[in-house]
Amino acid sequence: MEKSRVKVPVANLWRSKDKVRMIDKKILAGDAKSWSAEMSDQETIQLCDDNMIDSQLLFNDKVLVEENDGTWAKIIACDQPTHQNSNGYPGWIPSSSLAPAIPEQESAGTVTICVKTAPLYDEEHTPLTELTLGTQLEKITADDCKVKVATPLGIGFVDKKATEIPTDLVGENDGKTMVNIAKQFLGMRYIWGGISSYGYDCSGLVYGLHRVFNVTIPRDADDQQVQGAPIAVDSILPGDLVFFAYEHGTGAVHHVGMYIGNGKMIESRTPGKQVDIAELTEPKFAAEYAGYRRYWK
C-alpha cells in the first residue's frame, strides 16, 4: 500500500464516497472550519443517523492508500487504532486531501500543536493554513520564537508557543492538564466523527486530548473501554475516562467522558448538543456506568 499524508487542516473519514451532501462540499475542499460552523443542528445529526462518517484526520496525519481513482482514495488512518483493522481506521477521503511526505519528514522528530488553533506559515511568514489542537508535525529546527517543520505542503513554520501547553492550563499532572485543555471547548457543538478543534464527538474529544501528550489511544469508545489501565472507583483522578453502555452498563459501550473531579465529567454529549459538564449521578449515566480507564501517566 502507498503511504501518504493529509494536506488539509481536517478531513472527514467517510463511510462511503456516495454519502456527500451539498453542505459537505466545503470540507471536501479543505474548509472544515466553515463546514463545522455552518451546518444546521439537523445536518450534524444526519452525520450520525445516516452513518456518513466514522472519524476525521488532521493535517499531516499518516495514511495508507488502498485504492485511489483520482477523485476518492480508500485509506487507513495509521494513528487511529480500531478493532476494525489492525493497521488503523479504514474509510474514504478525497484524493485532493492527500499528498506524499517530503524527504525531510522521514527522519525528523515531532512537535504537536498544543493550542486550539495555530497558523502554519511559509518562509515569508505568509499563512499557509490553520492547524488544530493535536496536529503533529516533523521538526527540523527551532529557536525561541518559531519551529521550522516539514509538512506535505513543504517547509513551514509555526510559532514556538503553539507547540507548548499554555502555562495557565498546566496542572499538577497530565490528567489534570487534559481536563484544563478540555474546558476550553465547553459549549462547542458536537460533530459526529470529530477529532478537531472545530467539533468533537465523545470519543474524539478524549482521543484528541491524549494526542497533545503524544499518547495514542483507540479511536472509538468501545475500543477505548477495553484498553488502558482499569481504575477502581475509589482511585479515580481527573483525566481518567469513564464509559457508559447499554443494558445497565453490561452491553455495548456507546459513550465516554473524562472525569474532572467531584463526581463530574466533561463530555461531548450527543449529536445536536455541545461539550458540557455532567454529574455522574445523572440518571442516564448512573444507570449505564461501565467502568473507568486511565491512559495518562
Can you put this structure into words, describing what you see?
This protein has 297 residues and is an alpha+beta fold. The chain folds into three domains: 2-99, SH3 Domains (SH3 type barrels); 103-163, SH3 type barrels (Roll); 172-294, endopeptidase domain like (from Nostoc punctiforme) (endopeptidase fold (from Nostoc punctiforme)). It is built from eight helices and 21 strands. The protein has helices at 25-28, 32-38, 41-49, 174-182, 202-211, 221-226, 246-249, 283-288, and strands at 2-6, 10-14, 53-58, 62-68, 72-77, 89-94, 98-99, 109-112, 117-121, 127-132, 136-142, 146-151, 154-159, 195-196, 199-200, 229-231, 241-245, 253-261, 264-268, 275-279, 289-294. The strands form six sheets. The protein has a six-stranded antiparallel beta sheet with strand order 16-21-17-18-19-20. The model has no long low-confidence stretch (mean pLDDT 97).
